[in-house]
Amino acid sequence: MAAEDYRICSFTGLKIHKPTEDLIKWNTVTAILFLALGGLMGFLIALTRWPSVHYLSLQNYYRYLTLHGIDALLLWIIFFEIGLVYFTSAVLLNTRTVIPWAGWTGYALMLVGAVFVNFVVFAGKADVMFTSYVPLQADAVYYLGIIIFAVGALTCYGHFFANIIQAKRDGAYKHSLPLGSFGLAAACIIAVLTLAHGAVIMIPVFFWSMGLIHYIDPGTYRLIFWGLGHPSQQINVCAMVSVWYMISAFTVGGKPVNEKLSRTAFVLYIFFINVASEHHLLVDPIFSNWHKIINTSYMMHLAVFASMVHAFAVPASVEVALRNQGYTRGLFEWLKKAPWSNPAFSAMALSMVLFGFLGGITGVIFGTEQYNIIRHNTFAIPGHFHGTVVGGTTLAFMGFTYLLIPYIFRRELVMQGMAKWQPYVYGIGVAILSISMMSAGSFGVPRRHYDITFSGAPFSFTFDPAIDMFMSMVGIGGILAAIGGVMFILVAMGSIMYGKRLAS
Amino acid sequence: MAIKEPERIWWKPYTRDEKIWVAVSLLWMFTSFVFMPVYHFAGSQNPPYETYRVSPEEFDKLVEAMIEKYKVGEENGMPVVHPDPDEPVFIRASMWQWYPVVELEKGKTYKIHLSSMDIQHGFSILPINMNFMVLPNYDYVLTLTPTTEGEYYIVCNEFCGMGHHMMVGKLYVK
């Protein structure tokens, strides 16, 4: 490893390896492009569920809904996380990416898989939703695309371990990883477990779609699919929490108040979140009572406890840092003087509030054995996860992008006035969207449903008129979030392409 | 800092604030932890768990036999049945129909069997908003005692193809 391959970042003092920088750039830009596509789909879907607009045609509604899940949940988030993998396993440790070609191979596989899936869904051969519950069948190319993408993602998550092992040998760190890397280590461990579930179910389903296997049990599919589907959200949680800690460190110099506390919480995620993911199946005909009781009481709450710890530790790190900077008057001067106009900081703060209060709390409630009966598959469920993965993860990643642009892309942010407002517009839009979805869901409005006036049905049910307001708010929240999303894409892509170059 | 290697010994005792927060969180979690199993036994609002294997053909036969025995009329081209309270009730899900229309008597306890002929469906009783999954090859048995008279609708809330939004069934409590 030649010394000329490195540069010193003028903002952070970190030593950055050229191949690592390129990997982060490509993964991040790809992520942002998929966010743009997935976000556009989300916008059209929100307009369709707004009853007085009802924009898309029947077929396009379900098609775009499938794509929205793939592009916004899977592709945007995982491509961005792969960028974080290199950032935390090489950049933070002032060291190199050990096998850059493996990184590029993983990237290429993910991209090929992503293109396959997008193409086959657009072509109308896979209107199966993100969950593709068997025996609803998509074209074999759909499953193949998912498998290729997963192999690529596994290569990249695996790269994390190669990097930290080599970093230790090189003496890049002596005893313990920085907390940001530790959180990503937890994410990568969960990723391996999760993708193993994916392989166990997606490979047989791929053969089934080609007619080589005749039967896949629908109950078993649901069980193993959610071993993939929910823990993969825990990869996102770990990555997001790491991003919170890192943004706090980069923007205000925040320091985790107690490394022991924060690290223990990450370990709890690894142990308990996978087995807690059966709450998707509480009203399925497959589980015994004991299964449900253990899952909803014991397992779930140990993972929730971990989130409670981070909810304390991240704001505490910000508070301690700002108090050390002299903002010590009263209880809340630090909060008032926090850098609210720095989009990275405000995105982190909003992400924590939305994730905790909208996504987290509702997740705990909806995941209880009895309450699930009145929420399963209603519009309240997407309301919950738009609080977690959109208000939480997506917003946190947007905030981190504002840091990657100067640190990695070495560009100045363009349109800084707009960037300052972006997290607020997006955050408020997502909050309205999420709250109105949950409110409508409490009246039983189904999710993934084209027409809740049931036109053409043998019997017609009319919902409580209150839902008209909530469903219209879904549209309004969707428009606001879309505006915030467009602002983000403009600032991020504008800066990456046309931002003033910064000297390294 | 989260972006720097921590000092050699980071395994430090918790400060007072941390202890309080951890204690409050643990106490809250412990309350939920205990409450979940307690409510399972004390609350009697649990999701049903009685379930059997059944092939679509077998289930279809059971549905047809029930209709033959208990048919009392037709509504919108669909048979209406009024089964005896101690007899099992079968409701069949298929793309895109809940079949048949069922009349239940208030205050009587029924065993309602649900299964699908083709793909997965979601059984959502409105307006009371109770939701269960209906899977092919599984016979899912809800034990149900209707307490309020009226008309109820069964809406499918698991995506099942392009006619999904037209999959509405009906249930009477008399």
Task: Give short descriptive properties of this protein.
heterodimer, A: 504 residues, mainly alpha, 14 helices, globular, B: 174 residues, alpha+beta, Immunoglobulin-like, 2 domains, five-stranded mixed β-sheet, 12 strands, elongated
SSE blueprint and pairings:
The complex is a heterodimer of chains A (504) and B (174).
Chain A: E1 6-8, E2 15-17, H1 18-49, H2 58-91, H3 100-122, H4 140-169, H5 179-209, H6 218-229, H7 231-252, H8 259-272, H9 289-324, H10 333-336, H11 343-366, H12 380-407, H13 416-441, H14 466-498
Antiparallel strand pairs in A: 1-2
Helix pairs in contact in A: 1-2, 1-3, 1-14, 2-3, 2-4, 2-5, 3-4, 4-5, 5-6, 5-7, 5-8, 7-9, 7-11, 7-12, 8-9, 9-11, 11-12, 11-13, 12-13, 12-14, 13-14
Chain B: H1 16-43, E1 50-53, H2 56-70, E2 71-75, E3 78-81, E4 89-94, E5 97-99, E6 101-104, E7 110-116, E8 121-126, E9 130-134, E10 138-144, E11 150-156, E12 168-173
Parallel strand pairs in B: 3-6, 4-7, 6-12
Antiparallel strand pairs in B: 1-10, 2-3, 4-5, 7-10, 8-9, 8-11, 11-12
What does this structure look like?
The complex is a heterodimer of chains A (504) and B (174). Chain A is mainly α and 504 residues long. Chain A contains 14 helices and two strands, in the order ββαααααααααααααα. Chain A has helices spanning 18-49, 58-91, 100-122, 140-169, 179-209, 218-229, 231-252, 259-272, 289-324, 333-336, 343-366, 380-407, 416-441, 466-498; strands at 6-8, 15-17. Chain A has a two-stranded antiparallel ribbon. In chain A, α5 runs antiparallel to α7. Chain A is globular, with a radius of gyration of 22 Å. Chain B has a seven-stranded mixed β-sheet. Chain B is of the alpha+beta class and 174 residues long. Chain B folds into two domains: 14-45; 50-173, Immunoglobulin-like, CATH 2.60.40.420. Chains A and B meet through α2, α6, α7, α8 and α9 of A and α1, β8, β9, β10 and β11 of B.
